[in-house]
Amino acid sequence: MLADVVDRLRCPHCDSAADVPLTLGDRILRCPEGHTFDVARQGYVSLLTGRAPAVPGDTAAMVAARESFLAGGHFAPIAEALAGRVAAAVPGGGGGVLDLGAGTGYYLAAVLEAVPGAIGIAADVSGFALRRAARAHPRIGAIRCDAWRPLPFRTGAADVVLNVFAPRNGGELYRVLRPGGVVLVVAPTDRHLRELAGAVGAVSVDPRKSDRVDAALGPHLSAAGTEAVETTLTLDHAAAVTAVAMGPAAWHVGPEELAARVGALPEPVEVTVSVTLSAYERVA
Ligand SMILES: C[S@@+](CC[C@H](N)C(=O)[O-])C[C@H]1O[C@@H](n2cnc3c(N)ncnc32)[C@H](O)[C@@H]1O
Ligand SMILES: [Zn+2]
Q1: Which positions of the chain have pLDDT values less than 50?
Q2: CA 22 to centroid of ligand 2, rounded, Å
Q3: Strand residue runs (E) in the chain
């Protein structure tokens, strides 16, 4: 775990108003009140406290599918768009980038490659995701936490927050962002992967999703522009299966049923990628 990552963390047991910092020992993090958190063998630190989170996060199978699909480069245009926006937001390099719901760390690693000297915090509730995120880039620290609880990051600790197909908690994103910092949200439009959603009966995206992103962040941060990232993929059946298996449909359609439904599609199958990349600024 990098010292520069640890400096941005706070003790989840201590009074949150006090923003109590953690310090790094030998594979252990400590607060001045004596709370300790081990660095897991897989390289991440759990700062989850108390009761289990309401959601388990992505399963081992979903994370494996996500890693395989992203390794195919199919979402590289999204990673490039994010990296360009972060590089523009921190022109001199450096700074801290927090990715909330980071999954395997694919996007955070791409951003860190584009921003010399920046450090990344991959935050997720899924240990399966975090063990990959911890290895995704040498400048990443991976932290287990629940996006719907007070976040274990110090107030103003992040220069940039990424939120890619992941839960967003406007009040906490505002708190952890430094004044002048930016949140970058990637969300699907109702056309994203629609050919697969139709074929496998997957949960389709609410057409008013972008309104809901604004509603979650709007009271806390000011909208600073949205760009569309759109492309068409040509996928073989194996890639199409992983595209579905990495998303929420995996909770509803078993692997055999999924293989059968994708098998009924033409091969290769043309699939739409359609997302929005929206920026929100903390002005004060
Ligand atoms: C659809 S995946 C996106 C992962 C990554 N951003 C990407 O696009 O590759 C959503 C991620 O959010 C995580 N997640 C879901 N609920 C969460 C919560 N309450 N707190 C933190 N992470 C959560 C999941 O474990 C999963 O890794
Ligand atoms: Zn403490």
Answers
A1: none
A2: 8
A3: 23-24, 28-30, 36-38, 44-46, 96-100, 119-124, 140-144, 158-164, 177-188, 222-235, 269-281
